[in-house]
Amino acid sequence: QVQLVESGGGLVQAGGSLRLSCATSGRTFSDYTMGWFRQAPGKEREFVAEISRSGDSTWYTASVKGRFTISRDNTKNMVYLQMNSLKPEDTAVYSCAARLRTSVYRDWGQGTQVTVSS
User: Fold this and answer.
1) Is 29 buried (19+), middle (13-18) or exposed (0-12) by CB count in 10 A?
2) Torsion angle of alpha carbons 115, 39, 85, 35, nearest 10°?
3) 75-92 tens-digit pLDDT
4) Closest C-alpha to 35, from 108, 89, 98
């Protein structure tokens, strides 16, 4: 029961950086654990990163650890994904998602395209 809108995607060269943003509305933002997912062409949706309600705890899939950083600003109802040292295999549609006390993400944004050229 939260609306999510992603922005910040684009075309970058390998080794470059992008910062994705997710704007939320509809409920108290600090009640939600937030995550980023991605779906590459011809592939299933993949978990990328997650951040706790307070922002004090984060989790990452192994392939992005050390390169990506998830963060949130509860005063602005925003969540971010800083992506550094981008690789062509990072090319995908990136979506933010929200969940409450369940492990299942129920609310999803429409996604933003990230393309990394070799």
Assistant:
1) buried
2) 130
3) 999 999 999 999 999 999
4) 98
Contacts 24+ apart (CB under 8 A), 115-118: 115/9, 115/10, 115/11, 115/12, 115/91, 116/11, 116/12, 116/13, 116/14, 116/16, 116/86, 116/87, 116/88, 116/89, 116/90, 116/91, 117/11, 117/12, 117/13, 117/14, 117/88, 118/14, 118/88
Q: Is the pLDDT of residue 16 over 90?
A: yes
